[in-house]
Amino acid sequence: MSEFQSSPKNLTRVKLTVDLVIFFAFLIAMDPRSSGIAVHEWLATAALAALIVHLLLSWDWIVQISRRFLGRVNLQTRINYILNWLLFIDGSIMMLSGFMISEAVFPALGIELPRNFAWRELHDMTANLFLLLLGLHTALHWGWVVDTFKRYIFKPLGRLVFFRRRKDVTA
Amino acid sequence: MKTLGRILIILAVMAIVMGVTYAAVNAGGSSSDTPQFEAGRRPPFREGQFEGEHREGRDGREGGGGWMFGLIKNVGVIAVVVTLIVLPKSVARKRRRTAAAG
User: Model's pTM, two decimal places?
Assistant: First the structure.
């Protein structure tokens, strides 16, 4: 069991929060034209930490499927596992190419890197691919997304509204 | 301690991927006629890469409209991919259920 797993309910709540943070950070970082280069770069660098937390929270699943991958694993899990690797590799390349053309983070740290136009192309390509892979990743976890949203967001909100209405009626 | 070890594993795998990419790009870049550019002068984004490009400002501090459009576009791409996968799966599941019930 992971060190994070104080209780399955808490773990799911933490996972949902981390995933939402990564998702929205990615959406903002994905549009540097409107957010600005500095926000784009710093947010993407910070997202690395959130990504590591995301991987740590899914560590048990990763280890379990890595061990059983060549054995008996159902097709969806296999596809999911391969897709996750593709996301990880694409994300790593996107981050590296981003660092190589950095205008805000690396210059702020006083680091000058050799420039090559290939990094720019690679960054664009991996970013577009990442968006597609993120869509696939979300689609494969759609059941979890819907269940978790119902349980931890919609139901508590519904209870809150119902409780307020009942309070208003009794008052 | 266990968590630290796992973080190191993740970072090590990431470093391997990055190292291989760095070597590949440098090997390809040095042999080809890939244009180099001056430090601090990033080449422009490709045409149509980001919607804000068609508006004013390279660094895009252009107000709320740009933010919204970029976000909606990206959410739209993800939503289309999710719909294309989830919808057929859900329809197939429903058909299987009705077939089993009937």
Answer: 0.78
